[in-house]
Every structure is written in C-alpha cells, then in structure tokens.
Amino acid sequence: MALIVAVGALARDVFDWKIPGTASEDRQKIQIDVPESGTLSRCATLRGSAPRIKGKTLWMAHISPGGKYNFAQATYEDNGRWHATDTFGSESDVNQRFRVVVFLVAQETSSFLTGIRGASADGKPSSEYSAQALPPGATHEASLMVIRDGTRGQPHCGQLGT
Fold first, then answer.
1. N or C: which end of the chain has fewer CB within 10 A?
2. Sign, Cα dihedral of 120, 72, 141, 52
3. How many structural domains comprise the chain?
C-alpha cells in the first residue's frame, strides 16, 4: 500500500514539474477566446478567462512568424475574464500566423516584462521591443494560433491611442 501511495505522489510531482509550489492545489485553466471574425487587425484585443492567483500577474505574448516574443500585460475584469491589446506585427505582416500565449508570472518578472515593453522615445510601437522566449517561471499557459487579416496599412496600437 505504501508503495502505491509513493508512486502516486511521484507521478503527481512529475506532471506538476512546470508549476512551482503546490501546483496540484492551485492548478486552474487560462482560456483564450477565438476571435469572432477568425482573423485579427494589426491592433487587436484578445479576451479570455483566467484565475487570479495572489502574487502573480497575467500576461499575453504573441510570437511573430520570425520567432520574436512580444508582450502585453492583461487586464482582469470583475467577472473572471481578462483582455489584452497589442500590435500584431508590422504593416507588411498581413495574412501572417501568430501564436498567442497567455501566462502567469511572479511580480518581479512582471516588472521585467514591463521594462521590455516600455514606452519608446523614438515613436516605434512597443511591440518592436521583443524577447526570444517566454520568461522563466511562466505558469498556467494557454495558447492559440491566430491570423492577421489581409488589410494593408493598418496603424499600430500607439497610433490609435491604445
């Protein structure tokens, strides 16, 4: 009997390896809603649902066809929902596929991501400042593939005041 309990505990730990702490106790799903139109404009807002976990912040990353990771902090709504707005690619990235990942990070990592995303003095959209991967410690990930629509010449979010 003790062997069965030990094997069960080991199996739980193996499957929970990615989530630090008491992962099996706080495991909850993040969900990303599929855009109604099936495509995104260059400046797009995505929505979904996610848990609020003390000491964690919710972020959205979109990965460009070239492998750049661009980050936007998500905003929680009162009903357990979230939304995040970001610029998807450059003017010429029409009809391109982007992978979107929504994840939780510790407050220290959130401050770091805010620095990467920081406002630029040169007028470029913040999406031009990118990373090569998700930050260490990202947990509770959800992902979705999206396609930018075919409209050329769309402004980035900064040009729209968002």
1. N
2. positive
3. 1
